[in-house]
Amino acid sequence: xxxxxxxxxxxxxxxxxxxxxxxxxxxxxxxxxxxxxxxxxxxxxxxxxxxxxxxxxxxxxxxxxxxxxxxxxxxxxxxxxxxxxxxxxxxxxxxxxxxxxxxxxxxxxxxxxxxxxxxxxxxxxxxxxxxxxxxxxxxxxxxxxxxxxxxxxxxxxxxxxxxxxxxxxxxxxxxxxxxxxxxxxxxxxxxxxxxxxxxxxxxxxxxxxxxxxxxxxxxxxxxxxxxxxxxxxxxxxxxxxxxxxxxxxxxxxxxxxxxxxxxxxxxxxxxxxxxxxxxxxxxxxxxxxxxxxxxxxxxxxxxxxxxxxxxxxxxxxxxxxx
Length: 322
Description:
alpha/beta
């Protein structure tokens, strides 16, 4: 597998936004036909994360399935709102996959990529952003949403409820010093996730997790209160007839705000009510949020979670085979 980093967009202040582009010469297809494109949007609550957090086995398997895999970084909150940063940048990355990236890859690497056959997948809030791309004039050929945050505009829903995770972290202290350190300086588009037991949380982690614990996470992402601007679920019924084939992959023990089996089942019901023809759920027994980041979930394994991941990636391939 080969991977190169390309700039797909410049931010408001001229900052370069990078996408990791991966492909392989060892694929399931014997003939080197134009390769379809898989856009993967990382999770992290729109506050942390990067393309480096995407499980490598998923990228590798997709390249084996003959995809060119594009994994963009996007501008992270709170220096920018969710609508102006993560959502706008995901739309830009999708457009780049369709138009500019195939030209660049052909010029630089003599790789033929087919911008008319783009699928999208995402993890956690990256799944939410993936679903939002179904609203584009020419939507993806298929979507896989791993444990997405759903119905985040519903202020009575779980996305706005306090979360009991991360109890060992300190609370955010809303001082001028902390706000200056977090909000000023260069726009951040890549930040490591917090892993308990691997060092103390940094200021950005504390800000994010404190808002999750207090139930103010969505408000912190979109301070103007226009939550519908970042919630694709409000369009499920009205846009169902044009909705692309979609697979939700959800751990049955997920308790993260906005992410659970009941919400996925509601999403599927709303989409089908609107006329969507192909929407499915893959429930993963005994698993919680981010289950696919565990080593035993790597593609090719025998564990239930590994099988679920492989089935999800195969779902994407089925919808781009000519």
